[in-house]
Amino acid sequence: MRYYIRVIDKYIDEMIKAFNAINIVGPKGCGKTRTAKERCKTIIEFQDEEKREGYLSIANTAPRLFLKNEKPILFDEWQDAPKIWGTIRKDCDDNPETFGEYYLTGSSSKKIDTPHTGTGRISEITMYPMTLYETGESTGGVSISRLFDDDKYDIDGEKSNLKLEDLFYIICRGGWPRCLAIKDDAAKLRIATDYFEQIYKKDISAVDGVKRNPEWARTILWSYARNMATLSKKTVINSDIKATHNITDITISSYIEALEKLFVIKDIDAWTPQIRSKTAIRSAKKHIFIDPSIGLAALGIKPDYFNMDLDMFGHAFENLVIRDLLSYAETQNARVMHYSDDTGLEADAVYQLSDGRYALIEIKTGVNAVPKAEEGLLKFRDVIRQHNEKALSNKEHPGVTYREPSLLMIICANAEMAYTTDNGVKVVPVGCLKD
Fold first, then answer.
1. Which residues pair with 411 in a beta bridge?
2. What sign does the CA torsion over 211, 215, 218, 224 have?
3. Which of 153, 281, 286, 147 is CA-nearest to residue 224?
4. d(Cα 40, Cα 225) in Å, to the nearest integer?
5. Angle formed at CA 357 by CA 353 and CA 358, multiple of 5 degrees
6. pTM beyond 0.90
7. CA pair distance 141, 156, nearest whole angstrom
8. DSSP code of residue 368
9. What is the pLDDT of residues 62-107, one digit of tens each?
10. Which sign does the torsion angle of CA 172, 176, 182, 187 carry?
11. How far apart are CA 405 and CA 435, in angstroms?
12. Model pLDDT, residue 108
């Protein structure tokens, strides 16, 4: 199977100029090992049954022998030989002038507590399932990073090749690299289903060695899927689960924590407009799956289902877009958050760069929702402007001001082409978006 370029590639190549070791983490099956293999001359795979015993013997008695191999060296499934971590860490200390010699990848279903952190020596990079741009389903005609950096960037007229029915299938299939090697469309849908089954039957117990009830795990995933891309309180999710199982809130929380360790589910933080503001925004976290296909597999949903339930598709589509934004954010040292308050102001996603610039983003299924979404974004910006004017009105004792958004953006499922509204809001089909 040929290697498909990943958005994380450029970021990894930048990081190995500063660090001697890279630890790539992320969900099972997202392509961590293959991406690392593209850069390494020596591959140590602890899951290779023909070499496993020999590798483990060396790892337990004289792990430094591995470092004599031609570099860069990949240690795949390094958690099976945890002494490797400390060995690499010490080598980084002993040879501070070297860079890009070691890569570590491993299963998200097994966490190891190392005696020493890799801070300053081993850089950790999170890899996500493939974005629409990586699978070739987005044309890449609109770059979110360029929208921030180039005021003259003209996106108008960039066309998307995706139809709504295409997205029905793509969301259920997911961004799993394995799908690219399969020709049969129905067979591709089995990948997400299999991942879902492995998660609740095996991985949730393997991740930290704690025996867990598969049925409880399955129900928790089902409840999370019902609340996909929403701000539902944990009490709502817990009630869902308790309707059919005798389980405590503490136990549910421990299962959710395990699923987060597995990179299956993720809670998106609420955004605070100004980092030094004394008034923090109080808001629930947004619940998403690292890939919406896992949630849809938990619900037993197939592509045709969305013909009857566009509301559910809207939640799954928002999850899909946030998945891609998280992947792009990892390469740009950015954060993905959300905003909602009691006054009606909201943004489905807030994409904030490390220098403080940010985009307010609405995620919509149909172009018919664009005018209202634009109205909401403009109102949001106006509220910030009005606040700043009031804060600065007292020149002797000015109040705290908020930075205005650098970008107002609507990401749409079925828009045929990108355009800029008269008010400067960027309307971007998801089939055009890239990092």
1. 363, 428
2. negative
3. 286
4. 38
5. 80
6. yes
7. 10
8. G
9. 999 999 999 999 999 999 999 999 999 999 999 999 999 999 998 7
10. negative
11. 19
12. 65
